[in-house]
Design brief:
four-stranded antiparallel sheet; 1 helix; globular; five-stranded mixed sheet; 6% helix; mainly beta; Neuraminidase; disordered N terminus
Amino acid sequence: MGGPPVKRWLAVSLASAAACLAQSSPKKAPAYQWTRVTEEAAFAPRDGAGAVVFRNRMWFLGGWNPRDKVHFPKICNSEVWSSADGLDWKLENPGAPWEGRHTAGYVVHRGKIWIVGGDPIQGHYQDEVWNSADGIHWERAAAAVPWGPRVLHYTVAFDGRIWVIGGQTLPQFAPAKEIFYSDVWSSADGVAWTKMADQLPWGPRGMIGGSVVFQNRIWILGGGTYDTAGHPRRTYYNDVWSSADGVHWKQHTAAAPWKPRQYHNVAVFDGRMWVLEGYNGDGGNRKDVWYSSDGVNWTELPGTPWAPRHAASVFVHDNALWVVAGNNMTPDVWKLTAAQR
């Protein structure tokens, strides 16, 4: 007489237990693997080199190395290298017409590679815009921009436009009024620029390599400011912001679990946002790697095999995330691949 009710009770109990177990059991982290492609690529060591993927190749632009007077007689150079596999690198142009630079803005937009702005290493601000349809031959699209002088800006291609976000001046390197920017500019052609917003809630910052456009939004992941005479202490952030229009910004977290940093790289790979390496005043160069699908919940990828560094060149190419060179001052190439799932 008690059989059926007991069976029903048992079935409900087992289903409830299974549901609780599923909720309490952590999801298995995706499997990723680093591969060292080479420790000695054909190019000389450098940091801050531009990194874009164009025509199924990785393009490596300019860079900084003050100790190498042969390849960097003016501290920065204007070399252009490319590679399809990260092992064989071709010197496409030993001296492009743009002045040597590093940590500028680098994007692919309208079927061309773009270099947006530059640095102050030559004693002035490189407030100009260059582009190339083949990576070899270059044209100057704009000799001056309305958002100059500035360096260390964050640059993305989004919604059919190029966006310049934040940055600052560095009077100790190139004469200018000390300015820390918290504005956003955009342009469809690199020539005519519109100031979209100013005094944004994420405050003055820059020093972010790469770019993140994810879920139809621009994302700011960390960053900071460089020290100046008026502000002798650098700033380091680990907050996360995003915007669908460059004007209205949402803060997803005030403090992600990764250490505040600058001169790090950000990317979108395997359906996730990534934060890699960088520099922090407390511990110097870093080698940690983090990923997130929402900007709030972050997972650290353990066991990074490459040396700590900042201002590396990061690519997403051929179903892999690539880390190339940087302030470790070694011409190494690494790639991260996801396990089949």
